[in-house]
Input
Amino acid sequence: MEKIILEKDIEVAYVQATSFPDGIMAAFSELYRRVGKEHREFMAISRPENGQIVYRAAVVAVPGVPEDMPRWTVRKGEYISEMVYDFMKAPQQIGATYGKLLAHPDIDPQGYCLERYPNEQDIQCMVPLKAS
Output
């Protein structure tokens, strides 16, 4: 685990999964259909809402991303983070990694789970920490 700092807020556009975890791949497929896959920075945001996990497949909102897509702001600040390498070989690693991150004593109780995809094989799992 390592602490990292996001220096500025990041606006993302997203497609919300119809269910978690079953709807994740369909949400990403729809996102790729809407924005393409080339030269994009992909993320995902998940958090409990009304007793269920809501999952949003997201892309950094830069020119060329459709304006009609819903938006979310990834907050700047300090995050606890861990990489999961080659996640498709053992997708359960993602849940186990978030289990460790969410056990950290300083997480923001109003936070969320954030995934950043540096490439198609790896995920950077992140959870915001309380502002100091």
